[in-house]
Amino acid sequence: MDRREFLESIAGLSALLPGLSLQRAFAEALHARAQAATSLRTLNAAQDAAVSCIAEILLPQTETVGATQVGVNRFIDLLLTESILEHDRDRFLDGLAAIDARSRSLCGAPVASARRQDQEALIRSLDEALPARSPTRAEQAAIDREPMTAERGYELLKRLVVFAYFTSEPVAKGLIDAPIIPGRYDGCVSA
User: Fold this and answer.
1) Which of 139, 127, 54, 37 is nearest to 96 (CA)?
2) Rounded Cα gap, residues 6 and 65, in angstroms
């Protein structure tokens, strides 16, 4: 299944999930402020480069817009600055540092500076380590007490990238607002 098929398959989720409309309104406002921002507020240049690099590997430009084109990095920076608790922001940044440390160890360079094939191999290995299911509250509490790893940092980053991408205006209006059942339905009962 390619990205376009995936997007079309989830097109009707906003009608099914009542909280999604609130999330979408929040995200739209955040996207607007992120686009207007003149500088980064939480991420430094190296962290921004790592977020942008990983986001573009996850959601590259194809026949549809890519993650960097919709400003995923700016959205995440603003989200970290204004909407995430300090402890969670620090854990996210620790996870980003762990990803860079893993990249330095395996590739000899930070993720944003590594060769493209090394970046993709690193992201593939981190993606393969994602848990098969979401942890329970008790499991999540235990995980939150452990030191941040590259795998956990990648999991958090991927969630934010996907959220930022799918709530951006070009994606939300151009790709997701496709009808669930296009066209008209004419029953086969003759009158």
Assistant:
1) 54
2) 15
